[in-house]
Input
Amino acid sequence: MTLKEKTKILDKESMDRTLERIAHEIIERIKSIDEIALVGIKNRGAHLGVRLADKIKNISGSRPLVGALDITLYRDDLTQVSEQPVVHATEIDFDIEGKKIILVDDVLFTGRTIRCALDALVDFGRPGQIQLAVLIDRGHRELPIRADYVGKNVPTSNKEVVEVKLSEVDGKDEVVICEKTE
Output
């Protein structure tokens, strides 16, 4: 299977504006930056979490705590993904007990990644609340999970893939819809 790029839905500037809007929404809903921590789901969600934290600091003057969560060993499709999964380090160097945690991910699809992230997160303690921020919500949920903060809702078919490209990983910032081809 190969992917053929079909439509660019976000470029660098529109991605930046979208993250800025999400940062404003987060600030509007919380009482204090000190009560939250952003935890990005590796790989791209972790980078987006850092970007959101920087934007929150630019707007409010305070930067929330930021962590990165690896969910590899929590996946329910681990044997289907790879015989030798690559496990990355989880980087949460603060106490999550009682904190308002905002999970950050790039694309919300079936909800299975978020379910895994919830399982992984509670292994570190019992947050007071967990919210979800995603850059793209493409629908097709298999689990009853929804995002509290959504950058862009993008209706897609099951024959399409949403690719988020970030400069930290891919050398450029953009979101494209690709079509699966045989």
About this structure: The radius of gyration is 16 Å. Confidence is low (pLDDT under 50) at residues 78-82. The helical segments are 12-29, 44-60, 78-81, 112-122, 167-170. The first helix runs from residue 12 to 29.
